[in-house]
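ok so i was messing around last nite and threw this chain in just to see what happens. nothing serious, just curious
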Amino acid sequence: MAEQFDPGAMIERFAERAKAVKERGMPPIEGPERQAFIQRAQQDFMDYAMLADATATLDKGILTLTIDLRPPSESTPA
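result:
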């Protein structure tokens, strides 16, 4: 499996998912269900966007995703 796995392609798929979540329409729901839908969409976007920003390495079959969560002023250039 590791020989066929492309970490860069995985990162691209997460970027596509983040974009899709951000652009998806709101179904015709009201009340608590609407709030739950909005909250879930926000969480999905955050998760997908973080993974889309990750740096992926594959070493001896071990996938490592590095995500710098520091504020921009504290980040070091990659």
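not much to say yet. The chain has two helices and two strands.
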